Amino acid sequence: MLEYKSMLFNVPQFINIEDKIVGPLTAKQLGWLAAAGVILFVLFNFLDTSAFIIACVIVGTIFGALAFYRPYNQSLINFIGSSISFVIRPRLYVWKRLGENQKTVKKIIRNSDPVVEKKTLDNQKISDISKRLNFKK
């Protein structure tokens, strides 16, 4: 007789939650914030102070939203991509005829209607059926 030994395995439970890399930030969030930092560093070298402050607000808002805002529980970049795809792709559905190699089904037309036969139940048949249903083995 075969004897099976049970083995214990660690099964991950929260696979839809991203790993935190630095503090409460995930790798994607850290990447978006790093990209914002690089862009702001370049803008700091080319703009004067008042224009740089305006650029900080705009770039910070855009990249902050890309990093932290999750509409309908998906990342903002995926949401924007889905929105653009919805607007661009065609919504005109055209019926395409089957090719010549496909079998065609011919419709059978009958001139006469099928005869419907009514079945009637009398009291004897009803009592017979009820006895069979109530019978316990």
Q: Could you explain the architecture of this structure?
A:
The chain is mainly α and 137 residues long. The chain has a domain at 22-88. Helix content is 47%, strand content 4%. The chain has a two-stranded antiparallel sheet with strand order 1-2.
Q: Count the strands?
A: 2
What is the count of DSSP helices, taking H or I runs of 4+ residues? 4
Largest sheet: 2 strands, antiparallel
- What is the 3D shape? elongated
Report low-confidence residues grouped into runs of 5 or more: none
- Beta-strand portion reads under 5%
Report the average pLDDT across residues: 83
- The main sheet orders its strands as 1-2
Order of helices and strands: EEHHHH
End-to-end C-alpha gap: 38 Å
Report the C-alpha radius of gyration, rounded. 35 Å
Bin the helical content: 40-55%
**SS-based structural class?**
mainly alpha
Secondary-structure blueprint of this entry?
Layout: E1 20-22, E2 25-26, H1 27-46, H2 49-68, H3 76-88, H4 123-134
Antiparallel strand pairs: 1-2
Helix pairs in contact: 1-2
